[in-house]
Each structure stands twice: as C-alpha cells, then as structure tokens.
Amino acid sequence: MNQNSLLSRINSPRDLDQLTDAELKRLCAEIRTCIIQTVSKTGGHLASNLGVVELTVALHRAFESPKDKIVWDVGHQCYTHKLLTGRREQFSTLRQENGISGFPRPYESEHDSFMAGHSTNSISAACGIARAELLKGSNRSVIAVIGDGAFTGGMAYEALNNAAGLHNLIVILNYNEMSISKTVGSFARYLANLRSEPTYLKTKSSLENILDHTPVVGKGLKKVLSSSKKGIKNMLYHSNFFTDLGFAYLGPVDGHNLEELSRAMNWAKNADKPALIQVFTTKGKGYSKAEQNPGAYHGVSNFDIEQGNPDFIEEDSFSTAFGKELERIGRMDKKVCAVTAAMKYGTGLQYFSSTCRDRFFDVGIAEEHAVTFCSGLACNGMRPVFAVYSTFLQRGYDQIIHDAAISRNHVVLAVDRAGIVGNDGETHQGIFDAAYLSHIPGITVYSPADYEETRIFLKKALYEIDGVVAVRYPRGSEPKLPEFPEKNTDYQWIGEGDCLIVTYGRISADAIQAAQKLGEVCPTAVLKLNRISPLPEEAVKKASQYQRIFFFEEGIRLGGIGEHFLNALNQYGFQGSYTLTAIDHFIPQASVESSLKQLHLDRDGMIKTIVEQINEV
C-alpha cells in the first residue's frame, strides 16, 4: 500500500474525523482499490463489499465504535469495516489460515459486536444488545445493517415486531436489489416501490431553505411546523410498513452520498423511537464487471482483475454434476420441482431453472419456509428437491421433523457443501447434517463420493425411497476412486485384511489409498458406506467380525455416524477395538486440504492413526 495514501493513515475509526469531505471521497476510492486487489488474491465476497464503502465510512464517522455497536447481517459486507478498525495491515491475510476472517468475529476485534455468517439475524441481535445497553443505564446507539435480501427471511420480521421501546436502536436497510440470487417475493417489490417515493431528507432540507428565505411568514411557519410532534415529516412523507410498526422511517437515501448519509444518521441518533433508514446502493460499485454481474461476483475465488474470470460455480464440481442431472430428470418428469433459498447458482440449479422454469422456485433466504413448501408440494403429488448448503439447512431443522418426516412426505434434500468447506470458516462448515438428519426417524441419508454416485443416488432418492431422503455431497471436485463393479449399492467393500477402515463420502478415496499403503504393515480392508442412515445391516454384521475397526468421519463426533455404527456393532456382539476419528470442535478458516490434514482425515492422517494404535498393542 502506498504510504502516502489516505488509507495508510487510518488506524481507528476516529482518524476519519480529521479528513475533509473531499478526502473522504478519495478514501472511499482507495478502499475499493484495496478490496479488489486483495480479494483477487484471497477470494472472498466482492460485490457486496464494494457496495457498502460509503455507508461504512459514514457509519464510523457518525457513531463511536466500539462504544456504539454495529451489527452486520451475514457479515459478508464487513471488509471496509475491518479496514477502518485497525486491521488494515492484516487485510492481506483475509480468509487465509491464521488470518483475519471474512466475517465479523468478536474474538478478532472489539469493533465486531456480534458473530455473523448466516443471514437475517442482525436485528434480533441488535435488539438484545440495545436492550442490554438500556438495562445498564447506557444510551449508546446500536446499529443493525441488513440487506433487502435478508428481508425475505422471517426472523427479520420477528425482530421488528419486538423492537418497541428501543429508542437507541437504528436499522440500516441496504437496498441493492440483490442478495446472492435476485431478491424475490412480495416484500422485495414493496421495498422497490419505496425507491419511487420522494426522499424525505432532501425534501425537508429544500423546504426549510425555502421557508428561511420567505419574507415575514417563512420563519414563523417553519417554527410552527417544527414544534409539531410529526411536523414536516407528516406533511411530506406518508405512513409505511415500518412506521406502522413504531419505527421512525427515513428514506430512500443515496447510499453512495456521504453528505446525505451523514445527515440521515444524525437524524436517526436524535429520534425518540427505533429508527430505520433505507439506503440504496449499487452492488459491485467501482468495479464494472461486478456491477454488471453482481451475482457472479458475490463470492469468488482468486481472479484476474483485468480479465475478471470469477470462479463462480466451477464446471468441475459436485454442484454442477447434481444440477445437470436434476435438469435431465426434470425434462422427462413433469412432477419434479426444484427449490432454492436464494442460492440458484451456488447449488447448480441454473440448468433446471432455464429449462423447467415453471417448476423452479426461489423462495429467498427462507430455509424454514422452503422445507415446508416442499412438504406441501409433496403431499399434493409433486416430487420436490430442495437444494441447500449443509450449513443453511440447519435453519430448517424443526420443519424437517414436524412438516416432512412425521408425515412421511416425500421430500428430497440435496445437501450441498457437506463436510469441510474451507475459507469461510466456522459458520459455514457442513459438519452437522449427517448427525442431525440421521437421528430423525424415517429419514434416509446417502453420502456419495463421486459424481456418478451423486447421479445414481439422486435418482434413487426420487423414485425408489419413500419419505424424506437426503443426498449429501461436498464442495468442489470429485476425488479419484477405483472402479467398482456395482455403484448402485448401499455400501462397497474394498480389499481384505485384519484391520477395517469404515468411512463415507469424499474421504473414502483417502481411506482406500491409506489401506493400500498399510498393506505391508497391517492388511486393511475398507468399508465405504453410501447409505449412512439407516446403516446397512449386512455391512454392520460383516464388520462385527473384525478385531480392529477404525472409523473416520468428516462430521461431528457426538451423535454422528461413527457413534451410530459402534452402537449397531454392539448389537451384533462386537468384541474388538474401535477407534473413532471425527470432529469435536468448530473448524476455523483454512483450506479444505489443510483442515482435513489437521483433523487426521486425509490419507497420511489415517495411516498415522492406525499405525500408532497397532503399535500400542
């Protein structure tokens, strides 16, 4: 970074106070350059961060962080915030192992008020923080920054409904017409319509200016209007959804105009009730490729700035293999429907949506609704497939039980990003789905290890099994597996030996390679589970004859498949030793390869675990 740049002089938010308006605009340009250059090397969320540069600068000018609390919804737009709060020198380590996170993390900085990674929780968290401030006798402001995409999720409305009396709460509604996929739904249209309303802040200033220069009656009329409780606002701006809920509302405000943003935030600080400011921003602003295609530049791997080339959805990936197979099935079967929660491209559903448009449904960031919606489709004769990241499916857990499993509605869950996902860190790892799905009665769970198995088990889930069926698969490309005589089976047995490795999913390839390497030390067989719930009885029965079993699981240990397998073994009178290697903590950001290595879930880690166990005997 140029040592003469304005950004190099910003070590805390209060350094912004020393800059002129012209310098603040230059600073915003420098911040955009820094973000583009960094994300092009580290990957990350680009378009969303480029859209909130001025908004973030204005927030830190108007409020005094960390005394005033800023809560970021999702948190994938916090890069400018990090640059302004003492993490400029570490910014090049963004999303890297042992580097700074791409999301707010309170353990990283006192300026990060609340951990985030999933959408729609900011207003709820801010309500709690604001209430705590009032209970402590403090009047510090608490600001929730939330995008219009998050308003497709019900939690935001639950929070708005409970914000009464929190005069220290400010909600910044950032309207950019884009969450990850295009914002959908009736409320999105409602917010869009507010764009056409006159800007209260500008109109108020213009009217005051006119009255100040009107002889005789001007100042008197202004005084009369100002003395009214609602005054100028009621004359110029009608009631809307937010004011009906008890909020003081201001908008629309230009989210790239620092002067207008500053005045809006000062207005909100002086409101005698919860305040909501609706700002309008351009996602990807300052980088033309991201402005033209914000969806493609939402989350990117490293890329060439001049050429662009975002690694938006890799052609060689489980998501693509799934998406193309579902599209093929959908063209032949008019009962098949595809559902996404604002992740059409991320889950590979762009193929289905283009050819089976009337049976493709994007419900917005509303996983709970998506599960129950699928149950409704299923109970009326359709074959719904809900494609969703593992980490986001957690939000629909109650609906899976209550609305799908109990009634045995035939819903297929295509669980993408199952297992370790890499640099997004703790909030995005898909390590819980195998455990929480497998203990729900009546659910069938498949865990394919390559593309062909993904296609096979998707078709099996649609046409051969009743009730809720989950097909879970990892992020990225397929590992290299040996050719099996038969792939459409609940399990595969590879080799013979005194020891037995049991595993499932992506790391099956590592297990097979480990067994081959262990041949001279200890002949080792591999049981590759394809159906992980319910467990194949014949496989468990055969495994119970072994004296040494090593279960490796790319998922949470407690309540996971490894524990279920041991329980099943014991029912067959298993008397041997059993070693379970699984995950027992939240996994921080790192590459998938590095995380698996640290967890001893790669080939070398498996070999080491087995050799050490054998040598102890």
UniProtKB/TrEMBL annotation:
Summarize where Mg(2+) binds, as residue positions.
Answer: D148, N176
- Write down the HAMAP family for this protein, in alphabetical order: DXP_synth (MF_00315)
Residues reported in the UniProt entry to bind thiamine diphosphate: H76, G117, H118, S119, G149, A150, N176, Y287, E367
Q: What does this protein do?
A: Catalyzes the acyloin condensation reaction between C atoms 2 and 3 of pyruvate and glyceraldehyde 3-phosphate to yield 1-deoxy-D-xylulose-5-phosphate (DXP).
Q: How does it assemble?
A: Homodimer.
Q: What is this protein called?
A: 1-deoxy-D-xylulose-5-phosphate synthase
Where is each Transketolase-like pyrimidine-binding domain found? 316-480
Region forming the signal peptide: none
The answer to whether keyword Transmembrane applies is no
Cofactor: record remark:
Binds 1 thiamine pyrophosphate per subunit. Binds 1 Mg(2+) ion per subunit.
Reaction(s) catalysed by this chain, per the record, are: D-glyceraldehyde 3-phosphate + pyruvate + H(+) = 1-deoxy-D-xylulose 5-phosphate + CO2
The record's comment on protein family reads: Belongs to the transketolase family. DXPS subfamily.
Keyword 4Fe-4S recorded: no
Cofactors (names): thiamine diphosphate; Mg(2+)
State the pathway, as annotated in the record.
Metabolic intermediate biosynthesis; 1-deoxy-D-xylulose 5-phosphate biosynthesis; 1-deoxy-D-xylulose 5-phosphate from D-glyceraldehyde 3-phosphate and pyruvate: step 1/1
InterPro entries per UniProt: Dxylulose-5-P_synthase (IPR005477), THDP-binding (IPR029061), Transketo_C/PFOR_II (IPR009014), Transketolase-like_Pyr-bd (IPR005475), Transketolase_BS (IPR020826), Transketolase_C (IPR033248), Transketolase_CS (IPR049557)
User: Which keywords, in A-to-Z order, does the entry hold?
Assistant: Isoprene biosynthesis, Magnesium, Metal-binding, Thiamine biosynthesis, Thiamine pyrophosphate, Transferase
Q: Could you state a single Gene Ontology molecular function term?
A: 1-deoxy-D-xylulose-5-phosphate synthase activity
Pfam families attached here?
A: DXP_synthase_N (PF13292), Transket_pyr (PF02779), Transketolase_C (PF02780)
Q: Which domain of life is it from?
A: Bacteria
What's the EC number here? 2.2.1.7
